[in-house]
Specification:
Length: about 120
């Protein structure tokens, strides 16, 4: 019903920057909240950043001041700008979107994940 396509993951040196994108398509009436999570092997998936329909944002303490999140509602796309990257930011990053379908049902959709590696 809804597909998410993520892009932007890469290998980057400490102190570098990356921008992740996540585009939603399908039977979308409206998207409410959008966010990014990350997961490393052996650990639980954790919230990185979230942006709600009205534009309010929330960030994990570990990324405050370094990451920003934005959305283009016309394109059903959410972005995660990551600056001053640290090795501990290395993880698979997952897009997460709350969607009101054309049927007016509300579902939560996860992306397939994109790998970010911060290393020399």
């Amino acid at each position: 019903q809804v597909q998410l396509v993520e892009s932007g993951g890469a290998l980057v040196q400490p102190g570098g920057s990356l921008r992740l994108s996540c585009a939603a398509s399908g039977s979308i009436f409206r998207i409410t909240d959008m966010g990014w999570y990350r997961q490393v092997p052996g650990k639980q998936r954790e919230l990185v950043a979230r942006i709600v329909d009205g534009g309010g944002t929330a960030f994990a303490d570990s990324v405050k001041g370094r990451f920003s999140i934005s959305r283009d509602s016309a394109k059903n796309t959410v972005y995660l700008q990551m600056d001053s990257l640290k090795p501990e930011d290395t993880a698979v990053y997952y897009c997460n979107v709350d969607v009101i379908l054309t049927s007016r049902s509300l579902i939560t959709v996860w992306g397939q994940g994109t790998l970010v590696t911060v290393s020399l």
